[in-house]
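Ticket opened by: R.M.
Priority: normal
Category: complex prediction / small molecule

The reporter submitted a protein together with fe (ii) ion and asked that the result be attached to this ticket for the collaborator who will pick it up next week. Submitted input follows.
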Amino acid sequence: MTFNLNEFLLAVSFAIDAVEMEILGVNSNHGKRVGYIAIRMAEVFGLSQEEIFDLLSLSIMHDNAISEELLKSQPMIKTMDNFQRVETLMTHCSIGEKNIRKFPFLTSPKSIITYHHENYDGSGFFGLKGQKIPLMAQIISFADFTDFLFSFDNQDINNREKIIDYVKEQKGKRLSPDIVEAFLENAQYISFWLDLQNHNINDAIGQRLPSLTKELSWYDIFQITDVFSNIIDCKSKFTQWHSIGLNAKASILAKHYGKDEEEQIKLSIAANVHDLGKLTIPNSILDKPDKLTKAEFSVIQTHTYYTRYCLKDIKPFNEITEWAANHHEKLDGGGYPYGFKADRLDFNSRMICCLDIYQALTEERPYRKELPHEQAMDILRALEKNGQIDSLIVNDIDKVFEDIIFYKSFYSPFSG
Ligand SMILES: [Fe+2]
Ligand SMILES: [Fe+2]
Ligand SMILES: [Fe+2]
Ligand SMILES: [Fe+2]
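Result attached by the on-call engineer:
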């Protein structure tokens, strides 16, 4: 199938940016701004269309390991004043590089994420110096820290001048003379600055992005979404096995129903991305040990709206978007966010909905321990009796999962 990787990444970058906004305090559209600046710099350096395409992918995903790093180092980070310190942990670079190793890039970019915090003078995490730092890593590093320090969406003329002064001042220190020149070449155009504003950034990228696609199998696409399921699961320690667990169960149930391999993989993709919108929910709500207030629950209810918002423009994802984004809709119309009824909810949407509830009940939450199969089934049966979820699927979940013990390390049926 012909698949445009960057169409997918731009669609989901809204959710990744939400993580950086919460953890690092950067403004919205940070990943896109880094990407746009990178494209403009790459044009000056004369990179090929394929390289520019890959550079945009890498820019959007430069901090893909931030939530994972935060989750692993939480005991230490909690004692620090500011979550921004997670950016000072070099492991987010190596974990981030490892996470994208199966990405179907057009060229073969290596070590770009690993070295996205290197400085020209060797003062970065790994002490790499000068032109030993891959050019793409130099470009991303520049765009990343400059946007972090000054927010390119701030169009105040004083801010622009501050950025230009700072960049000149960093020549030979954090930045190579070539990077400084390439930036100044772009910075002379007013359009460059205007393109970086929040309401212009999508169009600006669209106009410059090389229209390249690649033939990918559904399995390749599944591997891409695996990176995002990891980001989503790492958002909170209580959900660290959620998408991957749902994926494993969706795959087993799909086999039980005799679905062909393509549909099985598509269901696993839907499971991987179903809670993408959760990346927009603050951890103060997700990790709250007490009952949520009405206002907090109304924030939680926004997450499937944003799952649909992210996925809706990815053309080959039409069915996957439905299955993923309908997982809190109920047959009687009492679900959210659209209140769809039975006639609008197809079999696979109903299946992901039932499995999502079962998966959540069998996981620990801040306010309760994980429930055993029988207790989870009691709750599913009560929902089924109320006409909220599909009785056939509830019966099959009981039959199929009754005797299965899920070992977390073997959760994903497709992940290698
Ligand atoms: Fe970073
Ligand atoms: Fe960043
Ligand atoms: Fe959900
Ligand atoms: Fe979920």
